[in-house]
Specification:
One of its GO terms (biological process) is protein poly-ADP-ribosylation. Pfam families: PARP (PF00644), PARP_reg (PF02877). Helices cover about 35% and strands about 20% of the residues. Strands 1, 2, 3, 4, 5, 6 and 7 form a 7-stranded antiparallel beta sheet that branches. Strands 8-9 form a two-stranded antiparallel sheet.
């Protein structure tokens, strides 16, 4: 009766665990019951079996820790649809949860340890020698400083290689720069252990540096993810139950309402159309197939309806960093030397009105083609308008507008004009609770 968990939470407090065997219609449920005046755990198993042209629903139950079990009378159905209907009704009776409303696939994806290891392997990080959660803030801060110096020496080396100066003098300076880079590289790899396969040659090309930049950003996202609990916790509680609690989120699956004439069905279809309209024209319209739409709400979320200039914007990130975002929220990198790491308009959290642009940051090659996009309510306040000529990793908007500036608007080549209100419409058509929040209504292209 053991198997992966299907649901961390159900609609009744008596249901402790729901396990799904991996087959489409087989489930094991554990329920707290009173027996002989003592609290006992009752185990209930239910599955659909095929009998040629007929189907039957088989049930069995017993008490946790006891070998004996009771097998119920099979319910024979003339068709698979009839058997599935009975299965879903019994599942709801036991858990007060609709079978189609389960969120197990989403949870398995964001807590997939194999994806984490695969992504770290791609960048050569030796996670067996030093697990990511054992890296300290001091180590990451010092590593970011080393990368900053590494970048500066690479720029100087590239400059010397293109200069038409005295050849002998340039060669001498280039040797000095290469020596500095080598020392920085060795110091960095001592702090951030890498796998050694054969003879390691870390050249002086910019690609080697950018690889380490991406690795450091990835590590920062993974560290925010709740780590594995001790064995003593797992003896009392299922792993995904514990992880779900750590998220502190209310997660509701809207996908099951897509074909129904309900408020949730209308919300799902409005969000789906918003996504389709948010695909940049340079991408095919079927770039990604939408597998599910979920509504997320922090349990202690603050009501921000009093904040001006709120908009719905897209944010893309790797699947393995989503759990950290759900548990801690979107956070600005807190290492001062991380700001130079490819940030176009300085240190901050980046959003866009273009869904296809956000997917470029999802790292689908490392997650079996899966991508998770956030559609976020963002309080922008007073915006500083910028374009490509203002792009600078060391960009500091506060120096331009002082404390009046709350966010930076990066103007794209095409799309909604920042000074035309008709390009943005009230999001109440998605859900009445979004009244007052604006969402793009025309061709996207502005990057925030």
């Amino acid at each position: 009766m053991a198997g992966p968990i299907a649901e961390p939470k159900t609609g009744t407090g008596k249901v402790r665990k729901v396990r799904h065997s991996g087959k489409e219609y087989e489930v094991t449920i554990q329920q707290a019951r009173k027996r002989n005046g003592q609290d006992r755990m009752r185990v209930y198993n239910m599955k659909i079996q095929s009998l040629g042209h007929q189907f039957q629903l088989v049930t069995e139950w017993g008490w946790l820790g006891r070998i004996s079990r009771v097998i119920g009378i099979p319910v024979v159905a003339a068709s698979e649809e009839e058997a599935v209907a009975v299965f879903k009704k019994k599942f709801y009776d036991k858990t007060k949860l609709n079978w189609s409303d389960r969120i197990q696939d989403l949870l398995r994806l964001v807590f997939d340890e194999d994806l984490v290891e695969t992504s770290l392997d791609k960048y050569g990080y030796n996670w067996r020698m030093l697990p990511v959660h054992q890296l300290t803030d001091h180590t990451l801060r010092e590593s970011a400083k080393i990368l900053r110096d590494w970048r500066d020496h690479l720029k100087e080396l590239k400059k010397l290689e293109t200069e038409e100066a005295e050849r002998e003098e340039s060669e001498t300076k280039m040797k000095v720069e290469r020596k500095e880079i080598k020392q920085l590289r060795e110091k960095y790899r001592f702090m951030i252990p890498h796998k050694v396969v054969g003879r390691v040659r870390l050249g002086f090309a910019i690609d080697s540096f950018e690889n380490e930049v991406k690795l450091l950003q990835l590590i920062q996202g993974i560290r925010a993810t709740p780590s594995m609990p001790p064995c003593s916790v797992l003896e009392k509680e299922n792993l995904l139950d514990w992880q779900y609690d750590k998220l502190g989120m209310e997660i509701e699956n809207l996908s099951t309402q897509s074909t129904q004439s309900t408020a949730k069905g209308a919300e799902y279809n409005s969000l789906l159309q918003l996504y389709i309209r948010s695909i940049d024209k340079i991408y095919p319209s079927d770039l990604y197939k939408v597998k599910g739409i979920f509504r997320l709400k922090k349990k202690d979320e603050i009501d921000n309806r009093h904040v001006e200039n709120r908009r719905l914007l897209w944010h893309g990130t790797r699947c393995i960093t989503v759990a950290g975002i759900l548990s801690q929220g979107l956070r600005v990198p807190h290492y001062s030397d991380m700001r130079f790491l490819k940030a176009k308009f300085g240190n901050g959290i980046y959003f866009t009105d273009t869904a296809s642009f956000a997917t470029e940051y999802c790292g689908t090659n490392d997650s079996d083609g899966h991508a998770l996009l956030f559609l976020c309510e963002v309080a922008l306040g007073e915006m500083l308008h910028c374009d490509d000529k203002d792009a600078d990793p060391k960009f500091d908007p506060k120096k331009r507008l002082g404390e009046k500036c709350h966010s930076t608007l990066g103007i794209g080549r095409y799309g909604p004009r920042a000074d035309v209100e008709v390009d943005w419409r009230d999001a109440k058509f998605i859900d009445e609770r979004l009244r007052g929040i604006r969402v793009v209504s025309l061709i996207p292209g502005t990057i925030l």
